[in-house]
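Lab notebook, bench 4. Still working through the backlog of constructs that have no structural model yet. Next entry is a single chain of 1151 residues. Request: give me the structure tokens for it.
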Amino acid sequence: MKFTRLRLSGFKSFVEPTELYIEPGLTAIVGPNGCGKSNLFDALRWVMGETRPTSVRGSEMDDVIFAGSAGRPARNVAEVTLIIDNTDRSASPAHNEYETIEVSRRIEREAGSVYRINGRDVRQRDVQLFFADASSGAASTAFVRQGQIGMLVSAKPLARRAILEEAAGIAGLHQRRHEAELRLRAAETNLGRLEDIVREVEGQLQSLKRQARQASRYRNLSGHIRRAEALAHYLRWTAAELRARAAEEALAAAASAVSLCDAHAAHAATAQAEAASILPPLRQAEAEKSAALHRLMVERDALDAEEARAREAAESLRLRIVQTEQDLERERGHDRDAQTALAALGSEAAELASAAERAVEELASAEASAIELSDALVECERTLERLTAELAEWNAAKASQERARDVAAGLCEASTAQLLEARERLDQAMAGVIDVPDVLLAQSATEQARSLAEDARQALGLARARLEEAERAEAATRAPLEDAERRVQTLSAEAKALADLLQPEGQGLWPPMVDAVTVQPGYEAALAAALGDDLQAPLDEAAPHHWCDLGDFDALLPLPEGVKPLKEFVTAPSALDRRLVMTGVVFPDQGAHLQKSLHPGQRLVSPRGDLWRWDGYAASADAPSPAAARLTQRNRLAALETDIGLARNERVHAFALYSDARVATEAARAAAAAAELEDRRTERLLIDAQDDAARTARAAAERASRLALLEAEIRRLTASVDAAREATQAAVAQLAELGDGAAIAESVVDARQRAGDARAASSEARTLLDGLKRDRDVRERRLAAIGEESARWQSRRDAASAQIQELVRRRDELQGALVQSESVPAAIALKRGALLDAIGVAEAGRAAASDARAEAENALAEADKTVKAAHTALSAAREERARAEAMLDGERTRMDELRGRIRDELDIAPDELLDRAELEADQELPPLEQAEKRVEKLKQEREQLGGVNLRAEEEAQELEQRMTTLTADRDDLVGAIERLRRGIATLNREGRERLLESFERVNKNFQELFTKLFEGGEAKLTFTESEDPLEAGLEIYARPPGKRLQTLSLLSGGEQALTAMALIFAVFLANPAPVCVLDEVDAPLDDANVERFCNMLNQMTEMSGTRFLVITHHALTMSRMDRLFGVTMAERGVSQLVSVSLAEAEKIAAE
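Model written out:
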């Protein structure tokens, strides 16, 4: 695995999202003290699962969250992500399928940390084991912080063993062994508890077996008692029957009075039914009004939600307008820069043109002066020749040649010095020349940045189009979801209203028959006409009036031909079968015709509720029946439950579509935001690349101009030196040809002096003329360069103007959209007003319906009171009959009591007593007194047994099953303990072998690195305090050159630091970690040791592949790094990560 990037957001002083690239080789992090360099080190340890706040320099873990500064508020969340390259598939098996692994840790203030690996939540221990298996982790020795070298020096040998464990790669194995030992101790504890439970269960099982034998004796006695009691009850029941049969004839005397009261009660029940029939429509109307009011309330909530969405859209448009204004201001700045540059170039061109005009006159004047001086020189030379001839040709020629020799030699020396100086300036200028490939590279970078910007702009347009499409799709799925929700609510409200109507006022003792009947839709009125008020009677025989199940008819008379019995359309208890099979269903126009064909007890009904009876009675369906209404409501409720189920399924389907659309919209919105960020980033890159290319081109043009001037001057000086050397050689040759001519020397002194002055003046004029020509050529080349630069700046200005127009257009579009979005709340307010008025009307309608329903309920209550009064009168008549026939009632009561006693004690009917007593057919019945004495005797014997556990046998069987389970669990625990012990032994053996093997490698590497660092000497590692490597300590012995062998603590400070570094790097060579962080470990080292330290780092990167992050202030260390990152704090309390040059890093180190 390779750690490639560290991403921070809100962590300590890094409030903005920051990425630190961890590249191969050596990476230095520099910056002034207190700017936040060590926060990067803390972030790397924190994301690896660090649990101690003090280890990341805090008093509590929430201290890692940005706490705010003078210009920024505090954050509530901090997140650090480590991106790992796993292309070599060296991660743990659980995550080895991924080529890139992202490990993140996110903390929310006062809410704790959340760990994720590739977006999936994991435990903190999972993250710690993940890095431990990679020879890394929060406690890894690869993280060497300030003062840790001293801690390693002062650490005890047992603490130093952790270095070897990490080198052996058994840090994770050590944790697993510890967890296995904890599980082993827990398993042994559970085994002990299980043994105690087994012994306890065995004792309970023995006790239950004794109780089971006692229970068997108890059941035998109970059987004898039941048979004896059955015999006694049989004798009592026979006597009671004889007494009751003698009093039965007295019952007929009160029949007329009871019949009269029954008629009155029936009339009152009819009035009650009429009052009850009025109530359901009123309740239905109230339910409909409530449902309508609820729909209006739902529409009001929908308007509120729509208004909130409109306000959010307006806020988003405002933010985009602000961003567009910022972009517009930036482009205007670019336009101003281009205008400034064009103005400067124009001024320079004007100055050069003016200088060229002035130089024309100067050049003409210089050429005339040079010609004039040249003519004067010729004249002087002619005069000199004439005087020489006159005075002495010999002497004059010699003197002339001597002067010519001296002048040529001086001119040669001066020109040579000037030539050397010009060549030196040329070499210096050549050292700073920008090559053409550099300019081309800058132009290529600009084109690449322009291509990236164009791609990002196209990607942004595509992402915005996809976002609009996703938003339209979400809006399209929202309407079906709202419709399905309203349908579910409407149907649920109607179902609840019907359920309330069908719920009886009180549960009572005897539910009516109508609640046990199910009728096919459309036949409710037919069933109500066939049974009438009889549907209110219960099935319970204990009720005053009830239905009894008498079974089927022995001989059933058929209904008229072609008439179907009502039973085919009704599902009801068998007690109604006789009535239902005797009732036929016909059409309304058939009833009167078929009524004459009915047999006694038969009747005909129509689906609408008409009735024709066998005795000539007929009733029309004009008056609605409460029973029919109740059955219709029950069928409607069943249909509503089916419709509600379907509506809920539709709502679930609509919600699933809406959720998918919402997820797609969020994804598209995130993609659009990312594309917009990428567009801004590439735009900044393009601007920076254009600026770099312009600067490179300007610098190249200026240096090329200077080089051309120097080369022309060198050519001129070279020609001058050559001419002077030729003149000197000619003068020397002529002097050699002449003899002694001292006599004529004085006559030509003046002429020679004049000729020399004329020659000097002519030379100066020629030099001035050459300089003016060179200046003219330089101006012409500069004017051509200014034209090219002006064209480039004009192109940049045109591009900025086009971008400004595009931004202005975009701003106008956004402002138009903002105006449209801001108008939406006003329209919604109008709709809300109308809706509130409708809600008021609906509330008034619901109140009126509620009042009507209350009045109908009051009328029904009055009818109920009348019915109760009629029933009270009927009861009074029956009580009067009971008092008149007290003896009969008393006997019946005693029989009922005896029947109840028989049922309570024996759970049988009186006619089953003889069978329960198990008497022989010819056996004589004993007297009642003798039978009762036998019962008492058997009961006394049973009571002498005391308390008996009748479930002892079942409990014993349950305990035996539990015993079997516990025994199996104990065997499983024993097996698990044995496996854990074998696993721990295997871990110890493997850890010991790997630790010894690692010790040999680390010791060898340590000796070699120590010798390289100290350029001699020796060092070694030894185990101490135990013969077991897993329990032993690690002692370090070292002998620097010229010293004796001694322990690490006895060395000097610098020697201790180098020795500890040698040990740390020896661990890397044995088991390289993916990354190593060194936090100012070079602080105690001098320059010579720093040089050795850097050499060792270079060797480590080549040998182990470990990536090093070095936090340093040492300039020498910075110069040896592969790359530099700087941490700055331009804003107090806020750190920023930037890439810096070596010169800037040395400046920071100097500060």
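Notes after review: The two ends are 38 Å apart (CA to CA). The CA atoms of residues 450 and 639 lie 68 Å apart. Flag for follow-up if needed.
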